[in-house]
Model the fold of this input.
Amino acid sequence: MGAQDVASNRLLCLKVFPKHHLERKARKDVLLNELEAYKRLSRALPYPAASFLMGLEMSFQTRDKICFAMDLMASDLYSYLQRHPTYCIRNSGRWAAQMTLGINALHEMGIIHRDIKAANILIDARENVRITDFGVSYVDRNEGPLDRQRNYCSREAGTTHTMAPEVLYNGSDYRLLKYGAPADWWSLGCVIYELISKKHKSLFVTKDDILSYVSWCSSRDRPSKRFPAFEGLHEALVDLISGLLQPNSSSRFGFAEVVNHRSFLSKDGTSEFLDAYSRALDRKAFPSSLPDLRCGRETNAAEIWFRQPSWEKPRVPNVDWVKPALLSPFL
Done:
């Protein structure tokens, strides 16, 4: 939901968790895990690609809610695909490059997102992407870069239509397979397909769809080298998506393969990754694209939420936090 900080007039987005929902341990674990991921992002070295990741400004609680306060965004990629499909095609290369840089930045910080999908790719006022929603992310104890060849976790996590096969297999209790960072690159392949395909629909819908694709990839007597859903796509894009959707995680495209892939080259040979950070910052902002927080109401009719005093109960421990930079007297 949209909000405005009374003290600074800054426009924010609030992600709200009703406290009574946290009585279930699983929901509380998701909240605390997401908060830990945001804390990791705030402590990380100043990666330029962090501009393609959603940051948390603060978390606080009222008497009956816990709130995460973040920058207010214009929309998300899923909504853009529904409302502005032609525009999405024109910006597909730029957005795919930004998502790639954002995912790699997460891996450099020791985080596997595990739920990369169009709905978790936000679009800001400059129409750049921000990867968000770290509730089911894996946050490694070591804050350094993840080893691409190492497996870190085994729990099934994420959304089915962008879930890598090695994650999907963990839905059965008897077959827990560990997996690592390549799971995010599979998900990126699913999102890129959705971004550039004619109908902007998910490549996979059910688990059976994914298993059928894995079976097709391993078949020696398939009638075509190109998966049927890829018909009509440019050859370079098919190569990129096929590399990201390689069922064998050790053979799957990763950051190095994607950032050097020919599908990101323009006609003059310039890569979408060249000066991606500075070009993103130089884009014109469109404040009018941000949601109207008034919703037809007068400003003085808006509801004001106050932080719960530290002595007041009921209180959820370990959720009140402010981004360190916000505490600096020089900012």
Confidence is low (pLDDT under 50) at residues 295-299, 327-331. The beta strands are 2-4, 11-18, 56-61, 65-71, 75-76, 111-112, 121-123, 129-131, 138-139, 321-322. The longest strand covers residues 11-18. The two ends are 26 Å apart (CA to CA).
